[in-house]
Amino acid sequence: MSDRPSEIVKFDNVGLRYGTDPEVLSDLSFTLYPGSFYFLTGASGAGKTSLLKLLYLAQRPSRGAIRMFGKDMITLPRERLPDFRRRLGVVFQNFRLVQHLSAFDNVALPLRLAGTHEGKVIKAVSDMLDWVGLSHRAQAIPATMSGGEQQRVAIARAVIARPQLLIADEPTGNVDPEMALKLLRLFEALNNRVGTTVVVATHDVHLLKKVPDSLIMRLNKGRLSDPTGALKFPPRSGNGGS
Q: DSSP 3-state assignment of 8?
């Protein structure tokens, strides 16, 4: 499509510090391209969660420039941020489910906020809950669900509206290996069929080889290394949608 940006995210010399503490992220320069699948990895404390906060617009950098969807995020007025966040899907480590809503209504939330017809909402959410193995828990509230079940609800909510950029922070940390692979395949399908750019932060080195043509971004003490060329080159033409 001609109106698609040539890049989803571009960081230029970005640094981040909290208060007067030393920088937790330093000199980050990279581009995320439409239709790419990235794994973000690194030791605990390397800065992965801080980098994800910049990507899902919860934090502004201390220095440098960030462009998303062709717009400068540094100078963007705060009242315009909600419009950009609707183009993102985010899977948080602590789930952030709405506690008084059922699993069904949590997953339906992005579609209802976007004004989707209720008939389409019911079909889409029912299909998604079936995919993640939670059809039988559709009316359960989060307090009655296991950590793994809550994780699957959070993932279903993040992908239901087919975001342009999906950001997932340790999305398989609370599920068994079989379900972890199934969820990873859901992300892969979103990437391949819809063209969503996917960023998965993980400690699980076994996942890194599970997605063909995925790119690895490795953080070490707040700086990025680039073992697969993720930061320099767009994906091959066959990856993702158009």
A: coil
Residue 86: inside a domain: no
Domain count of the fold of the chain: 1
- Measured CA to CA, the distance from residue 117 to residue 107 in angstroms comes to 15
Residue 132 in domain: yes
Render pLDDT for 145-175 as a digit per residue (tens, 0 to 9): 999 899 999 999 999 999 999 999 998 888 8
Largest distance between two CA atoms of the chain: 51
Q: Are the beta carbons of 32 and 38 closer than 8 angstroms?
A: yes
- Cα distance between residue 48 and residue 26, in whole Å: 12
Rounded to an integer, the average pLDDT of 36-53 is 92
CA dist., res. 73 & res. 151, Å (int): 29
Q: Is-contact 217 38, C-beta < 8 A?
A: yes
Q: Rounded to whole angstroms, how far apart are CA atoms 78 and 56?
A: 14
pTM above the 0.85 mark?
Answer: yes
Distance between CA atoms of 86 and 161, rounded to whole angstroms?
A: 9
Range of the domain at 131: 97-162
pLDDT of residue 23 exceeding 70 = yes
Q: Specify whether the CB–CB gap between 222 and 61 falls below 8 A.
A: no
